[in-house]
Specification:
Cofactor: Mg(2+)
CATH class of the largest domain: Alpha Beta
Function: Specifically catalyzes the dephosphorylation of 2-phosphoglycolate. Is involved in the dissimilation of the intracellular 2-phosphoglycolate formed during the DNA repair of 3'-phosphoglycolate ends, a major class of DNA lesions induced by oxidative stress.
Shape: globular
EC number: 3.1.3.18
Pathway: Organic acid metabolism; glycolate biosynthesis; glycolate from 2-phosphoglycolate: step 1/1
Enzyme class: hydrolase
Number of helices: 9
Number of strands: 8
């Protein structure tokens, strides 16, 4: 695999939505409850799924654009409604993808440091991590509003490396969307992609990650081949 040879890896940074968890059903339900409050027609879950990945404001902006609404005041109002609705039901229908909890345990047992870098607002993360039993799994969790920029900007990834005292060369970025791969490439990290997530309806392989996988178990097997001692 490119740029893995000279470096052993010790840190794995994961995206959250579409990578570790399938949160689209709850995100879509919150968008549709927002629509209902705004007296707008609801949209199918698969349509809403294609808007996920750049944080909540962008999701709501795309949701309004679908109804030809492009207005800063309307966006602000709709975003507040969405955030409240999503806070009300964050984990009702959200599931972790097959093999994720086992894979994370295997990586941790092998000595890897694990972190999360998500564009999801920080306020939702404690409930999600607690729900899946992942509170002690990750050394550091960075939400989309933790810094002044979010993925695809590499800053959050570099911030994680700096905070944990691990060089980007020793890090792997794992994600399902172009934001993850672009951020990882800009940070000069090995990038591994999962094909089952939400990449705006485009195959993630088009972003040229170092490798792409159909399931989390195979991804875990690959990461374990990067010796880290």
């Amino acid at each position: 695999m490119p740029n893995s040879a000279p470096h052993t890896k010790s840190l794995v940074i994961f995206d959250l939505d579409g990578t570790l968890i399938d949160s689209a059903p709850d995100l879509a339900a919150a968008v549709n409850r927002m629509y209902a409050q705004l007296e707008l027609p609801i949209m199918p879950i698969d349509t809403i799924k294609s808007w996920v990945g750049n944080g909540s404001l962008k999701l709501v902006e795309r949701a309004l654009a679908a109804h030809k609404i492009d207005d800063a005041k309307a966006l602000h109002l709709a975003h507040d409604i969405f955030l409240a609705e999503y806070a009300r039901q964050t984990i009702d229908k959200t599931k972790s993808y097959i093999g994720v909890t086992q894979g994370l345990e295997r990586l941790k047992q092998a000595g890897f440091v694990l972190a999360i870098c998500t564009n999801k607002p920080s306020r939702y993360l404690p409930e999600i991590l607690a729900h899946f039993g992942w509170v002690d799994v990750f050394e550091l969790v960075i939400g989309g509003d933790a810094l002044s920029v979010k993925k695809p900007d590499p800053t959050p990834l570099l911030h994680i490396c700096e905070t944990l005292g691990i060089t980007p060369a020793a890090a792997i970025m794992v994600g399902d969307s172009k934001n993850d791969i672009l951020a990882g490439q800009a940070a000069d990290m090995t990038t591994l992609a999962l094909r089952y997530g939400y990449n705006y309806g485009e195959p993630i392989d088009l972003m040229n990650p170092d490798a792409a996988f159909d399931d989390f178990g195979t991804l875990t097997d690959c990461i374990l081949t990067y010796s880290h001692h």
